[in-house]
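Narrative of accomplishments. A recurring question from our advisory board has been how the design workflow behaves on a single, concrete structure rather than in aggregate. To address it, we present the structure tokens for one chain from the evaluation set, followed by the sequence designed for it. No filtering or post-editing was applied between the two.
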């Protein structure tokens, strides 16, 4: 049976490969440290408890009101606004194009809605810094591109920030 659950210390991550060296390295070496030692992100895995099919790491984040699409920004105050930030996501090459990524995103959506409903932590939506090749995937899900206001990396193409407002997420669920 396949389920999505938080990463455990004993999960074997060494054989995971999504085809992106930097994501594989992050998942194998740093996802556990970030979750269990530094508390800067939580990683969820798609698994049958033997094989890890994919992962998604989320953390608390914020956006300034002027970074939001014009249609959304008018109802928010002009200070940093809380979001659920998808910081990393990867699907093992053997399980790509099988819906694993969509299920991982759905998990992030449920977490964002839960944050809002619990009223313990604010959440106006979900933010992802999409790699250029992943933009069509996120656009199909309903994310919209935000104007990038961050520095430009010297080597790799700059990730594109994309956002989905919580009301759209609630309707999708």
């Amino acid at each position: 049976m396949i389920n999505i659950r938080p990463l455990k210390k004993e999960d074997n991550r060494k054989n995971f490969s999504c085809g992106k060296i930097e994501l594989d390295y992050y998942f194998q070496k740093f996802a556990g440290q970030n979750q269990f030692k530094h508390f800067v992100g939580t990683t969820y895995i798609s698994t049958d408890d033997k094989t890890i099919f994919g992962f998604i790491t989320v953390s608390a984040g914020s956006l300034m009101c002027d970074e939001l699409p014009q249609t959304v920004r008018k109802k928010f105050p002009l200070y940093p606004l809380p979001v659920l930030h998808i910081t990393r996501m990867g699907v093992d090459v053997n399980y790509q194009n099988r819906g694993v990524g969509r299920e991982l995103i759905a998990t992030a959506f449920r977490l964002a809605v839960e944050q809002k409903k619990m009223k313990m932590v604010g959440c106006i939506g979900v933010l992802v810094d999409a790699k250029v090749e992943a933009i069509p995937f996120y656009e199909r899900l309903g994310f919209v591109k935000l104007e990038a206001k961050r520095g430009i990396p010297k080597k790799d193409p700059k990730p594109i920030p994309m956002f989905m407002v919580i009301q759209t997420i609630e309707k999708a669920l």
